[in-house]
Amino acid sequence: MKERNVSGTLSTDYLMPGTKRPSDDLMSQSPMVTNGTSPPHLSGSDNDAKKVKLEQNSPNGPSRVVHIRSLPPDCTEADVVQLGMPYGKMSNVLLLKQKNQAFLEFLDEQAAVTMVSFHQQNPAQIRMKPVYVQFSNHKELKTDQANSFQNATAQAALQAASAVMGGPTEEGQKRTTLRIIVEHLVYPVGIEVLYQIFSKFGKVLKMIIFTKNNSFQALIQMSDPVAANAAKLSLDGQNIYNGCCTLRIDYSKLNNLNVKYNNDKSRDFTNPNLPSGDPGLDQAMPFGGSGSLVTPMVPGMGAAPLTAYGAANVVGGTPVYASNLSGNNSAQVPQMSSYGVPSALGAARMMTLNAAAAGAGNAVLLVSNLDEQKVTPDALFTLFGVYGDVHRVKILFNKKDNALVQMAEPHQAQLAIAHLDKVKVWGKNIRVTQSKHTLVQMPKEGQPQDAGLTKDFTNSPLHRFKRPGSKNCQNIFPPSAVLHLSNIPPNIEEDFLSDAFAQHGQVKAFKFFPKDRKMALIQMASVDEAVTALIAMHNYPLSDTNHLRVSFSKSTI
Predict the structure, then answer these.
(1) pLDDT, tens digit, 9 for 90 and up, residues 191-236
(2) Is 72 helix (H, G, I), strand (E, B) or coil?
(3) Is the Cα dihedral 12, 15, 18, 19 positive or negative?
(4) Which of 71, 292, 403, 546 stands 20 to 30 A from 257 (CA)?
(5) Beta carbons within 8 Å of 232's beta carbon, 6+ residues apart
(6) DSSP assignment of 24-71, as one string?
(7) Are 21 and 14 in contact (CB under 8 A)?
C-alpha cells in the first residue's frame, strides 16, 4: 500500500512526521522512517533527524525488533532500554517522541520473544504509565547520521545498559548518584536548569547544589544506573550554554541523597510536600550565603530560560533575543547549546514573550551595607567590573552605605549578584540585589549636592569584557584568597609586588608563572583581604605603559 507524501505525490520511500499511519506500527509499510523529532516543513539536507532503514518482514512473525506504543510524553531512550534489560542485550533503540512510540532491537530474537510473551500477560509500565509491547513488522533497525543528537543519546543509553548488565563490574556502573562540577560559570546555573538537562536521560529523583573549592557543584540522584550512566556518557565535557558552563561529571560515593527541604538549594522531586526550610530565603538570589547556591533567576522571568530557539541554533556564543521569537521586544537571554533542552520540549517550557520582555532587561543593581567612609564610585567600578562592564555608579547622597551599579548587560548583573552578594568588603557583608530602577541617572549640570557620588564609566578603557570572545569571559570566579596578576613588566620583582599588596593585608604566598613571567599568583591571608587588595591594586601603574591587572583565581599556590 502506497502512502501519499506531503507534496501530494505517491512515494513508498519515506514517511514524514506529519503523515498518518496505522497505530499498530508506524513503520509497518515503509522501508524508511524519520524519528519524528523535526518539523514537517524540513526536508532534504535541512532535516538532520535520524532516519532508520528497516527490512520488510511478515506482519505476524517474531522479530528482534520490539515495537512499544503509548509511551508517556517524558519518556527517554534510557527508560525504553531499562524496560528491555531483563530479557537480554540490546543493539539499538529508536524513540519517536512526537508519536509516543519506540523501537527496541535485541541482539537475540529469543530475547525479544521472551519480552513480548511476558508483557502480553503482564502489562508493561514506563514512568507509571501502561505501555503496549508487540513485535515490529521489521527484522532489523539500522541507523545512519551518527552525529545526530538523537543517535548519541540512544547509544549512550545502550552503553549504559551494557555496562550495568554484563562484563567486569567497573566502579560506578551500579551507582545512581552523579557529582557535577560546572566550569566557566558565565551564566547562573541552578536546579531548574540541571533538571531539564538531566531528565532527558531518565527520571531525576533528588538534587542538591552547593559551592566547594570556589566552584559550582551539584549532586543528582537518578532513578536507576542506566539513566545515571547514560547522562554521564552523554553530558560529561559538554557546555550548557555555548562556549561556557562546562559540565564535568563523575559518580558520587553516596547511594542516596538525604533531602530535607524543597528550596533553591535542594529538591526531592519524589516528595513535593517537603518544607522550604528558611522562610526568609531570598528567592531572587542565584547564590545564597555561606558559599551555598540557589536557583539562577533572570529578573521577572524566574529561572534562566532554556528556549527551543536557542537549542536549535547552535552557533557561536551570542545571546538569543526574545525579539527573534515574536514581537519587537529585545529581552536578552543566554543561548543554549545543543545539550540544553531539546527543541521538541523547549517550546512547551518557554516563558511567554511578555514575561521575557518584562524580564531580562534590567542591568541595575542595588548594593547596600557598604562602608560609607571607604566606598567610592571607582572602587565599585573595579570590584563589580570583575563580573561585567560597569557603565555607571551612583552612591546615594542621603544614604551613603547604599549605591546603584549599572552593568552593561543583564546577565552581567546576575553574575555580580551570584558572586558578590554577602561577600565581606571593608569588613562588612554587602548585599547585592536587583534594583527597581532600570537606569542610573546622571546629575543635572550644576547640581551641587552630588559631590562626585555619581560617575559614568561607559567609555572607560578599563572594561574587561568589551572585546567579543575575550578570554576574560572564561575566567570568571568567585572571590578567593588567591589573586591572578597579569601585565607585569620584566623588570618587576616578587618583592616589589609583595610589598605593594602587603599594604592591604597579609601576603601568604607568591609565584610567577614558570612559562610566562608576565603573570603571577599571590595569596592573601583571607578572602576579605583579597577583595580589598583587588580593589586597591587593579590598574596599579607598574611602568609608563604597564598597569597591573588583578582578578580572582581558582588556583592554589
Answers:
(1) 888 998 898 888 899 999 998 877 889 999 998 888 888 888 878 8
(2) coil
(3) positive
(4) 71
(5) 160, 178, 249, 250, 251
(6) T-TTTT-SEEE-S-S-TT--GGG--S-EEEEEE--TTS--SEEEEES-
(7) no
Name which residue leads in pLDDT, 534 or 75. Answer: 534
260-279 pLDDT, tens per residue? 999 889 999 999 888 987 54
User: What is the C-alpha separation between 68 and 198, in angstroms, rounded?
Assistant: 23
Note if the pTM is more than 0.70. no
Helix (H) or strand (E) holding 358: helix 353-359
Which three-class secondary structure state does DSSP give residue 382?
A: helix
Average confidence score pLDDT of the chain:
73
Cβ neighbors of 263 (< 8 A, separation 6 or more) are: 276, 277, 278, 281, 294
Cell numbers that stand for 332 in this block = 536578552
β-strand partners of 432? 367
What nine digits make up the cell of 477? 570566579
CB 389 within 8 A of CB 463: yes
Which cell numbers hold the place of 57?
A: 518482514
Q: Give the mean model confidence (pLDDT) for residues 488-503.
A: 94
Once rounded to an integer, what is the mean pLDDT over residues 443-468? 80
What's the N-to-C CA distance of the chain in angstroms?
Answer: 73
Amino acid in the structure at residue 382: T
Dist. CA 526–CA 270, nearest whole Å: 41
Measured in degrees and rounded to the nearest 5, phi and psi for residue 119 equal -80, -10
- Separation between Cα atoms, residue 174 and residue 49, nearest integer Å: 32
CA distances (Å), 478 to each of 212, 229, 383, 420, in order?
11, 31, 12, 8
C-alpha cell at 524: 592573601
Grid look-up 538534587 returns: 207
The tens digit of pLDDT for each residue in 121-176 reads: 888 988 888 999 999 988 888 765 544 556 777 877 787 777 777 654 444 457 89
